[in-house]
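subagent[fold] <- orchestrator: predict structure for attached chain, return tokens only, no commentary.
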Amino acid sequence: MGKGRHAIASHERRVRRVAVRYGVSLMKAQKPFGKVLEHGGYMLRDDDTRKIVFGNNGYEFSATLDEVEDFLLAQPKYGDSEND
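subagent[fold] -> orchestrator:
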């Protein structure tokens, strides 16, 4: 199923908003190459440590946008660990 340019941009914005809640940033390959063009194009980077937390399995930017979203949604809720 193909997605239009606007649908992809909208999906990226939604995933970026979710990522911020978990203290990570969505990174997108600026110049896709080989494997990235076939599958992938995204990574998540921890904002504090600057380490890649998802999307570098075998090669950089190895995750698709759907995989990144699924990874984030599988994490414990961002507000559950706070005891205020």
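orchestrator: received. Logging for downstream: Residues 15 and 69 are 6 Å apart (CA to CA). The first strand starts at residue 24 and ends at 28.
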